[in-house]
Amino acid sequence: MEFKDYYQTLGVPKGATADEIKKAFRGLARQHHPDKAKPEDRPAAETKFKEISEAYDVLGDAEKRQKYDQLGANWDQYGSGGRAGGYPGGGFRRAGGMGPGGYEEFHFGGTGFSDFFEQFFGGAGRGGDPFGGAGNPFGGAGGYQRAPARGQDVEAEIMVPLHEAYAGAERTVRLERVNQQTGERKENSYKVKIPAGVKDGQRIRLGGQGETGGAATAGDLYLIVRLAAHPDYEVTGKDLIYTLELPAWDAALGAAKEIPLPNGKRVRINVPSGAKTGTRVRLRGLGLPGKTAKGDLFVEYVITAPAPATDTERELWEKLRDGA
Q1: Which has the closest alpha carbon to 79: 95, 91, 67?
Q2: pLDDT at 86
Q3: What's the pTM?
Q4: Residue 241 pairs with which residues in a beta bridge?
Q5: What is the rounded distance in angstroms from the CA atom of residue 36 to the CA atom of residue 29?
Q6: Which residues pair with 304 in a beta bridge?
Q7: Tell me, what DSSP letter sits at residue 217?
Q8: What CA–CA distance (Å, rounded) separates 270 from 256?
Q9: What does the pLDDT average to over 123-131?
Q10: Tens digits of per-residue pLDDT, 107-118?
Q11: Strand pairing of 239-247 and 297-304?
Q12: So what's the pLDDT on residue 2?
């Protein structure tokens, strides 16, 4: 499996600061956002946007970045169980005791994350025992663990772009099960509904699709939602914060601006003269859906000013500064 150089994906050096990484992500995400692509170019744009989002998901998270930097070229040892004191894990989820059903590995597709990400940052099933059973996995008669009454639950992460969280969506997730004792492989596809207003960390349950391992009843499969970072929006609960960059002249004179919503629609606001950086305008009911009501959209002003390109421009700015 090919190593993913997330620094190269974002075009930043390994020693880049958090602000530099965020700036690089925002620039690339705006450039390759699927909403800006022509219909025929949208599939390629979606693929590129997912790559950028995945890179930022890792490098923008201090803990994940540290793990990624520490392992570096030894990442494949991590994925194959080579880390000291670890357990076989990685992109697959190994679950089940060493009973009649044997270990099961779970490989996922359609989650929005690459195979490399799944193998590097994937985890085992739920529960404290990384081998999927309570106590000694070799315990029981004949050195095997007695088959449990219920299979272990299994978890995987699914990347959800903001526009899907905003309006809801349906995704196809592929799941391949590999029985490590018999070598048997089974692959299934599932239609997964992403509810409007879904939150980061929320779990979507697929009942009875978890580990079996010879159990009488299968466990469940849980997809853990990871909201993909957006170049223009921040999510706070049900509320959205949109950063509106205003040229100095628009801030001074006032202007009419259109704000894009995550669902592709746009809303028009009037920026008053004398607008200041940090001012927020509240647009009620344009945030993420909730159980009782939608959140709000906050538009935050950030005033920008270009560097003078000519002596004439510099003289004009100096006159403004001096009140001439």
Answers
A1: 91
A2: 31
A3: 0.72
A4: 234, 298
A5: 10
A6: 247
A7: B
A8: 4
A9: 39
A10: 787 888 887 787
A11: parallel
A12: 74
E strand residue ranges, the chain: 93-95, 104-109, 154-160, 169-179, 185-194, 203-206, 221-227, 233-236, 239-247, 255-260, 266-271, 280-283, 297-304
Half-sphere exposure of 172 (CA within 13 A, CB side): 3
Kindly give the interhelix angle for 18-32 and 42-59, rounded to the nearest 10 degrees: 170
Tokens of 111: 């989650």
Cite the residue boundaries of each domain of the chain with CATH code 2.60.260.20.
Answer: 6-128+148-227, 233-322
**CA dist 129 → 48, 71, 134 (Å):** 37, 24, 6
Distances (CA, A) of 60 to 20, 36, 63, 123, 161: 10, 24, 9, 20, 16
Q: How confident is the model at residue 91 (pLDDT cuts 50, 70, 90)?
A: very low
| Cα separations in angstroms, 48 against 34, 169, 207 | 9, 20, 32
Specify the residue for token string 């309570």.
134
Rounded to whole angstroms, the Cα distance separating 13 from 81 reads 29
> Cα–Cα distance between 298 and 234 in angstroms, integer?
10
**CA contacts within 13 A on the Cβ side of 6:** 28
* Fold observed for domain 6-128+148-227: HSP40/DNAj peptide-binding domain (2.60.260)
The CATH classification number of 233-322 equals 2.60.260.20
For residues 296 and 239, what is the distance between their CA atoms, to the nearest angstrom? 5
Distance (Å, whole) CA 255 – CA 257: 6
